[in-house]
Amino acid sequence: MVNEAGASVRGQVGELVVRKPWIGMTRGFWKDSERYFQTYWSRFPDVWVHGDWAAVDEDGLWYILGRSDDTIKVAGKRLGPAEVESVLVSHPAVSEAAAVGVPDSIKGEALICFCVLKPGSRVSETLREELRTRVAEHLGKPLKPEVLKFLDDLPKTRNAKIMRRIIRASYLDQDPGDLSALENPQSVEAVRNAICGMSGRRTSRRPLTKGLLP
C-alpha cells in the first residue's frame, strides 16, 4: 500500500499497488493499449495501481476497503465509503448503507449517508442522530455525517453492487448517466428527491416520492 506520494505505508488506509508482475496479470485492453497504461500504470513509475483502498491489521491480514475513485475527503481527512458504511451497518437496525461526499465550501466535501433499515426497525430522529454520532465516535468528529437519510432501497446492479456514483449524482440533482445496469432504477428517484446539495433546500422539480422516508 502507498500514500498519495507513492511511499509505502502501514497502520493507515492506503492505495493498493503491485510492484512485481504475476502470472495472471492483464497485459492490455483490447485495441486500446493507451487506456490500459493510463488506467493502471500512469500514476507511479513502474507500479500497478489497482484502484482500491486497502489496510493491513496488526496480524498482517489485508482488507480491501472499496474503490479509491470513491474517495471522500472531509476537512483534509481521506477515507473510503466502505469505512463509513461498515460503521453504519454494524448498528442492529441498519441493513444497508451508502456514503458519498458532496462539495462543501468549508470542509471541501461533506459526508452524506443513506441507510436502509431492517424489517421491524422504525425511522426516527433519535435513530438518525444515533447513527450520525456512531460514525463520529468510530471515525472522528469531523467525519460526522452532515446529512443522513433513510431510504426503502439503494440503487444497485443485478449483482447487488451499490452504485455510489449514481447516488451522488442523483442527490446533487445531476445527470446520473447510464442506468441500464440497475436492478431497481426506481430507487434513483428517491435519492434525487432527498435534500439537494448542502443548502438545505429540496429539489423543486418534484415532490418527495414514496421511496424516501423522512
Please describe what this structure looks like.
There is one protein chain. The protein is an alpha+beta fold. The chain has 2 domains: 14-68, Roll (Luciferase, domain 3); 71-202, ANL, C-terminal domain (GMP Synthetase, Chain A, domain 3). 22% of the residues lie in helices and 26% in strands. The protein has 5 helices and 10 strands. It has helices spanning 33-40, 81-89, 125-139, 164-171, 186-192; strands spanning 14-18, 48-56, 62-67, 72-74, 77-79, 94-104, 108-117, 147-150, 195-196, 201-202. Strands 1-2-3 form a 3-stranded antiparallel β-sheet. Strands 6-7-8 form a 3-stranded mixed β-sheet, with helices on both faces. A hairpin with a 5-residue loop joins strand 2 (48-56) and strand 3 (62-67). The longest helix has 15 residues, at 125-139. It is globular. Mean pLDDT is 83; it is low at 196-214.
Strand fraction band?
25-35%
- Fraction of residues in helices? 10-25%
From the helix content, strand content and strand pairing, which structural class follows?
Answer: alpha+beta
Low-confidence stretches: 196-214
Overall tally of domains: 2
Main CATH class of the largest domain:
Alpha Beta
- Name of the CATH homologous superfamily of the largest domain: ANL, C-terminal domain
> What is the overall silhouette?
globular
Write out the strand line-up for the largest beta sheet, numbering strands in chain order.
Answer: 1-2-3
N-C termini distance: 40 Å
Mean pLDDT: 83
CATH fold-level topology of the largest domain: GMP Synthetase, Chain A, domain 3
User: What is the H/E string?
Assistant: EHEEEEHEEHEHHEE
| Radius of gyration, CA atoms, in whole angstroms | 19 Å
Q: Largest beta sheet, briefly?
A: 3 strands, antiparallel
Total strands: the figure is 10
